[in-house]
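Hey L., structure's done. Input below.
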Amino acid sequence: MERVAELEGEQLKKVVVIGGGTGLSVLVRGLKEKPMDITAIVTVADDGGSSGRLREELSMPPPGDIRNVIVALADTEPLLASLFQHRFSSGAGLAGHSLGNLFIAAMKEITGDFVTAVKEISRVLAVRGQVLPAANQAIILNAEMEDGTIVSGESQIPKTGKKIKRVFLEPKDVDPLEEAIEAIYQADLILLGPGSLYTSILPNLLVPGISRAVKDASAKKAYICNVMTQPGETDHYDAADHVNALYNHVGADLFQTIIVNNAQIPSAVLARYKEKGALPVAYHPERLSRFGFEIIEDNFVIYETYLRHNALKVGDAIMGLLESK
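Output:
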């Protein structure tokens, strides 16, 4: 279904963001303040925590990443957003569940369809844009490690301490959501990331038809590279390693622009992350230049409780891409 968004009589440019996890939520929270029509395509490979329990018990796609993006795009009272994100700390069967996940599960039972449930909740929370799962069913993410072992489950992959060779989906023939494909083809700009490389971004691109649509779409395309490596997933990866991993899974020609952070991380923050096994994603211009990308580099980080992309500053760079189309 085509949606027309207008501002002062002018049609807004359509931006599709593809990913999952905290990175996608942070990005869209900043983008919703910009004059653009946002569609977020979100992974349904999560199998941990509250999402994993609902997925298994109710045979539904995991709602967690979807919930976070809905809240990030919502134009609603802060108290209502906090309520949606509230996680129960006690109660038989309730402990660990977020109210938003239960809300989505209830709406799915009422409407009979996960995608319809997401749309209805988006309407209730006055979401600025559109939130779509990559597929209308749960997907199992598997990984083949460098030593040949196979690990099943998105939440289990980073725990092995082994280097990932490749990830793949089960079932292989999962159907992409048609509305997601349509949004990609209608987009003026397609953004990949930021987010977990193997467990948030690639699970979307591996859904048959998604990466092909990204490549074939006439939109500008950009990849927002992570700021920090992720233990058990991208240990010691630099920006070029992230790109190579994407190419090795779904081929080249995914994007023409890469957005990278070139700022030094404060030593105190660096030490805190190093304790957890995370390091800054190094940016080596000579390695990236071989791909022929337009490289947008700047200080794109902000530190609050955690190190995150500065969503407003990244948003300014994205507006620059839209305006140059």
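The chain is about 40% helix and 20% strand. Confidence is low (pLDDT under 50) at residues 1-9.

-- N.
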